[in-house]
Structure formats: C-alpha cells, structure tokens
Amino acid sequence: MGSTRGLVRSIAGASKHVCGIVLAASVGFATAAQAQADKMVPIAIPAQPNEIELGTGKLPGATTAESWHRQYEKQFARNVTVATLTPFLPDPAKATGTAVVVAPGGGFRTLSMENEGWDVARALADRGVAAFVLKYRLVQTPQDMGAFEKSMAQMFAGAAAAPRSPTKFEEAVPQLGPQIADSRAAFALIRKRSGEWHVDPNRIGMVGFSAGAMLTLVTALAGEDAKPSFIGTIYGPLSPVRVPADAPPMFVALAADDPLFAGKGMGLIESWTTAKRPVEFHLYEQGGHGFGMYPKETTSTGWFDAFVRWMGMHGLLKPAS
Questions:
Q1: Could you give the CA distance from residue 169 to residue 166 in angstroms, rounded to a whole number?
Q2: Bridge partners, 66 (sequence order)
C-alpha cells in the first residue's frame, strides 16, 4: 500500500463532482421529483447531552454556524464546525466489550444524524455493542435554507448526468483532511476512556454510510493511529483500492438499484479478496440509496441484522475471554 501521505494527497485532489453525487444521494434523493416532494424544514439544534467535543478545533475558515433541518421525518445537521462524539452504551448486563464508531453520510456537506447515526447506534447498543456517533466537520454551505436547497438541486442535476463508469477510490473522495482528523480523534478518545466505557481497545470497529463509508475506508486504509478492528461500508463506492496485508475484516451492503454506486463493478470486493482479507458482500435487488434504518419493504432493510450476524461470526458479540 502507498503511504498515508500519498493517499491523503490523492484525496485532496479529488473531484467536486463526485462529492455532489454523494450529497444528493445521502440525503435520500432518488429523483428530482422526490426532492421537491419532501422539503427540508429548519429546526432548532436538538439537545445532545452526551456529546463530547473531540478537540480537533474549529473548521479552518468557517464563517457559517451549525444548523439543523428535518427531512424524510429525520434530523440532519450541516455546517458542523466542531467535531463531536456521542456515546450510546449498552446495558452492562449484556455488554460485549465491542465498540463501533458510526459515521453518518451526507456528501461531507450535511449529516444524516438520525437515520444513519443515532438510530444505528441505539440498535447496536441494544445488541450489547457500545456505539459512538461521529459528528464530523463539514464543508460550509449557505446558511439560508433556500440557497442550500438550490445548491443541492444543482449538485443532483450533475450527479444524474454523470457517466456510470468506475473511478479509482483515491480520485473519487473529496478533501478529507478535517474529517480524517476527526475520525482518528474519535478512536483515540474511545481507547483513552475504554476502561470507563467497558470497551476492549482491540475490538473497536467502524461503520459508515455513503460519504461516511468513504471516511470509514480512508480511516481503515490510511489511519495508522486509528486502525479499526473491523469495518462496514453501507451504500458506499465499490471502486478498487490498495489493500494492506493487515486490512480489517469488511462488511459491505449495496442495493443493485443504487443510482450512484451500483453497476460500476465490484473492485472494492475484489481488492479485499485478492489481498486474502475477510469480506462479506450483500447486493440487494432493491433499496436505492440512503435506506439506512428506514423501514422499507425491500430486503435492503435486513442489512443491519446481517451486519450483526457477521459481527457474531467474527466473535464480536461475546465478551473477550
């Protein structure tokens, strides 16, 4: 594998166009008509009593304050300038010692905090897994909701016209300097407080959605000081990557009708298998993009149970002996 520095340089030169694709999908857009049918409604920043600032500082150059909105009956954050981590700890009676950092998606311009964050974390905690929702810093967007919606619509129009051809992972991820720092800080904090949170520091994984899946991959492949013990990428890109000999076990879920990442090959899966590293891949017939924890009649809704069974197969649902 190339050096971390080389990968980060590749990330820094990535395409804004791809970032727009991820943004449009991560907030649940399947068509322009659907986007018009379910408008974003500004809401007050919700109480997050257990969130912990990660100490990575304020987003450089940020001038727009954090704000939140509701869409598809769920809560989203944008203009996040200070990264935080929110613990969701299991009942001590059924705690397994395993932990998962949860990275919501949103094109690095918004975060699906409820559907791809809190709801996932609560479900993991219910299975005895300590979950930590990462609210990472985001690219700044217009404060005005109308201007924000317009910018999203423009990005989605470009995404819809994008050619369906495979792209190298390093060329398809936007500038992630702050987000990588936030992810690494999350792992450092969990390991530092592992005794307090009853977490085995050698059993901390990460699961991400769309843009969060990209961040999860970067953390696994370029984050020497983070080193997730296992990872899950949910409706993220399947582009090929350079896989190190000690890459973590990986769980992947994608819908065959995903408008962004389906039909572009399975390079990511092949990269893992070529490196002889454990990987499980679920390709659901239907589900679109951004299904997360939404209850749907498609089999993609079963991704979470499959992910938990996969963790169990790897011995992650039993306390370490």
A1: 9
A2: none
Distance from C-alpha of 105 to C-alpha of 94, rounded to nearest angstrom: 29
Place of tokens 């450089």: 60
Which CATH superfamily, name and number, covers 4-313? Answer: Alpha/Beta hydrolase fold, catalytic domain (3.40.50.1820)
d(CA 302, CA 30): 20
Element (H, E) at 209: strand 204-209
One digit per residue, pLDDT tens: the chain, 321 residues? Answer: 444 444 444 333 333 333 433 434 443 444 554 554 478 999 999 999 999 999 999 999 999 999 999 998 999 999 999 999 999 999 999 999 999 999 999 999 999 999 999 999 999 999 999 999 999 999 999 999 989 988 777 776 665 556 555 555 555 555 789 999 999 999 999 999 999 999 999 999 999 999 999 999 999 998 677 889 999 999 999 999 999 999 999 999 999 999 999 999 999 999 999 999 999 999 999 999 999 999 999 999 999 999 999 999 999 999 876
Spatial distance between the Cα atoms of 169 and 225, rounded to a whole number of angstroms: 21
Distance (Å, rounded) from C-alpha 194 to C-alpha 196? 5
Q: Are the C-beta atoms of 188 and 225 separated by less than 8 Å?
A: yes
CB neighbour burial string for 264-296, b if at least 16 within 10 angstroms, e if fewer: bebbbbebbeebebebbbbbbeebbbbbbbbee
Measured distance CA(62)–CA(193) in Å, rounded? 30
Closest CA to 176 of 1, 2, 18: 18
